[in-house]
Design a protein that fits this description.
The complex is a heterodimer of chains A (230) and B (365).
Chain A (H helix, E strand, L loop, with lengths): L2 E6 L2 H12 L4 E5 L6 E5 L4 E6 L4 H7 L4 E5 H7 L7 E6 L5 E8 L8 H15 L3 E5 L2 H10 L5 E5 L15 E6 L3 H5 L2 E3 L6 E3 L1 E6 L6 H13 L3
Parallel strand pairs in A: 1-4, 1-5, 8-9, 8-10
Antiparallel strand pairs in A: 2-3, 5-13, 6-13, 7-10, 7-11, 7-12
Chain B lengths: L3 H21 L3 E2 L5 E3 H8 L9 E4 L3 E5 L4 H10 L5 E10 L11 E10 L4 H16 L5 E6 H9 L5 H9 L4 H11 L7 H8 L16 H16 L5 H12 L1 E3 H12 L6 H16 L8 E3 L13 E6 L10 E5 L1 H7 L7 E6 L1 H6 L5
Parallel strand pairs in B: 1-5
Antiparallel strand pairs in B: 2-4, 3-4, 5-6, 6-12, 7-10, 8-9, 10-11, 11-12
Classes of the chains: A alpha/beta (230), B alpha+beta (365).
């Protein structure tokens, strides 16, 4: 059997991952037609490339169906309960940087901290009769962050895309989303709270703590990790 | 999982037998749905409950929640009734996510007992605690007690502005946030630069840019005015901060705690009515045969649980198995009946026992 390495199946994340491994003497390539999700690994033996959606890699690692996987630590921490017992981060890959942040309308000149957000939420609920809505797709991470920050009287509303537009569309009062440059936020008249981000994320190589390995696979895994200089 | 099945039926038998005991003492049997409307629970407990309860969606009825406890349904049931005092008992499954403790059960049985409308709070508190204490006596558990009413009285009596008292009251159930607010009101925490800049600005809304969202310019102005007014207030004195910390750290036997709190009340007279209630409860408990002299009291007990208790709180723990959650918990929740009763309020006190943990500890004879 072989070691299975899960890599995002398309886009810049895939290309940059290929570059990162290539620079360390492990060549990853897609094989077959443009549309076929198949790949090959050269430069080290006993490793198979598995092309997956970046969002599915956490689940596959946790289930032990792949031994290694590249994905953002935002997705790992959002999707896996007690993630550190299921996967081990081996190396940050230095790309795919993004922060998960909480942002409010620019015009909220009175709100810059979590303390402000809590105060505004209390007044908002008293005035409007419902809890202040924060749009996000990172429910667990954001809820935990707000709980630790002592924010009450808010509700999370699910937003799987175009989250920055929800405030203008009156479906949320604030948002929590991934941003790298902040440009989309500015264009939508939003500002980031003056607080540490919910999470600082980048593409990371993870090892599954759940995948079973034979002696042969363990040797292949060790050879790969050595080759990568980790 | 298969070996759990006989155990499940044993848990049910244990639950039934505890429940029968409450019925024999005059309680009415109560049953309710497992699938509850999520909205009322979310509004009550806030977003945090999503981390602990299972929320699902029904295409027609919207968000539904797998019953996280029986309290809300039993309060709703009682408040729709004739309003006469009544006590209820029930048992059934409740569902709680265990993200922090994956080894703990996420589906388990609860047996409950709730008393509504008792005209003498001290007697009702003592009766409920006494019943739980009697039922659980064979297990030799450690009891813990507290009284959120004392903390509420403390905040209500603070010599500071109404806004500050309201902010502290909102966060009694979030100890870290509560302490941070106390520090800020006392001027012991640095003012964030953004706040300082806002207060220094003569027309802060001038550069606000495009107004978007439901929160209006008027609401923003109102909050800025409130912040300015608060900044103009003198800080809360260091003495008050120390007194608050002293109250929160009280942890001794009931009689000693009462004496200690009475000493503090010399400088915090707002505590006195709540302390009179505490004393009356101790006396009622003693009359009911509870060994009050050795019963522990912690002023901060119950602050981090579900935020509906607003008076007496209690729990029973196994000292031999500190890894287990409490075997029983309960308390007084008059404020919950006020929020669910649209203006009406009914005195309410009760608690739940976990029959699965009772069995884990050897069961009741």
């Amino acid at each position: 059997m072989t070691i299975k390495l899960g890599v995002p199946s398309k886009g810049r994340l895939m290309e940059k991952t290929f570059d990162w491994f290539g620079a360390r003497g492990v060549t990853l390539t897609r094989t077959g037609s443009e549309r076929e999700y198949a790949g090959a690994v050269d430069g080290v033996d006993g490793v198979d490339l598995v092309l997956l959606s970046a969002g599915e890699i956490p689940r596959e690692l946790a289930a032990g169906r792949i031994h290694l996987g590249v994905t953002g630590n935002d997705l790992i921490q959002e999707k896996l309960v007690q993630w550190d017992q299921k996967v081990e981060p081996l190396a940050p890959l230095g790309f795919g940087h993004a922060n998960l942040i909480v942002a409010v309308p620019n015009c909220w000149v009175d709100v810059d901290t979590l303390d402000d957000l809590d105060g505004a939420a209390a007044a908002f609920r008293a005035r409007h009769g419902f809890r202040m809505r924060i749009a996000t797709k990172y429910h667990r991470l954001v809820r935990d962050y707000l709980r630790r920050g002592g924010v009450a009287d808010y509700q999370l509303v699910d937003s799987q895309g175009a989250t920055e537009g929800t405030v203008k569309n009156l479906t949320a009062e604030a948002i929590a989303d991934i941003t790298s440059t902040g440009e989309t936020l500015r264009a939508n008249h939003l500002k980031i709270l003056d607080e540490p981000p919910v999470l600082e994320s980048q593409a990371t190589l993870f090892r599954s703590r759940r995948a079973e390995v034979t002696d042969q696979e363990r040797a292949a895994l060790r050879a790969l990790i050595e080759r990568l200089g980790l | 999982m298969a070996q759990d099945i006989p155990n499940k039926s044993r848990v049910r038998i244990e639950a039934e037998s505890i429940c029968e005991g409450f019925v024999a003492d005059g309680a009415m049997r109560f049953e309710t749905d497992i699938l509850l409307q999520a909205e009322v629970l979310l509004d009550l407990y806030g977003e945090d409950i999503r981390a602990r309860a299972y929320v699902t969606t029904d295409p027609e009825r919207g968000e539904m929640m797998l019953r996280p406890d029986f309290t809300v349904p039993v309060v709703q049931y009682h408040m729709q009734g004739d309003g006469f005092p009544a006590s209820y008992t029930y048992f059934g499954e409740v569902f709680r996510k265990q993200e922090d403790y994956p080894d703990r059960r996420s589906e388990y049985m609860q047996v409950g007992y709730e008393e509504f409308g008792g005209s003498n709070a001290a007697e009702s508190d003592a009766d409920v605690f006494g019943q739980f204490s009697d039922v659980l006596a064979p297990l030799g558990l450690r009891a813990a007690t507290g009284d959120i009413g004392i903390l509420i009285a403390m905040v209500r009596g603070l010599a500071t502005t109404e806004d500050r008292r309201a902010a502290l009251m909102r966060h009694i159930w979030r100890p870290a946030r509560f302490t941070a607010l106390v520090k800020r009101f006392a001027g012991l925490a640095p003012v964030p630069p953004s706040r300082a800049a806002l207060l220094a600005s003569e027309a802060p809304l001038q550069d606000a840019g495009v107004m978007i969202g439901l929160r209006s310019e008027r609401e923003i102005e109102t909050r800025i005015d409130a912040l300015r007014a608060d900044a103009a207030e003198p800080p809360m004195s260091v003495e008050i901060v120390d007194l608050i910390a002293t109250v929160l750290s009280v942890s001794e036997t009931c009689p000693n705690a009462l004496e200690h709190l009475r000493d503090i009340a010399v400088e915090m007279p707002g505590l006195l009515p709540a302390l009179d209630r505490f004393e009356a409860r101790c006396e009622a408990m003693a009359r009911r045969g509870v060994d009050v002299d050795s019963l522990p009291f912690e002023a901060s007990y119950g602050r981090t649980s579900m935020e509906y208790y607003d008076g007496f709180v209690f729990g029973f723990y196994s000292e031999a198995r500190p890894d287990l959650p409490p075997v029983a918990t309960g308390g007084r929740y008059d404020a919950l009946t006020r929020r669910l009763g649209q203006g009406r309020e009914i005195p309410a006190v009760g608690g739940v026992i976990r029959p699965d943990l009772v069995l884990d500890l050897g069961g009741l004879p």
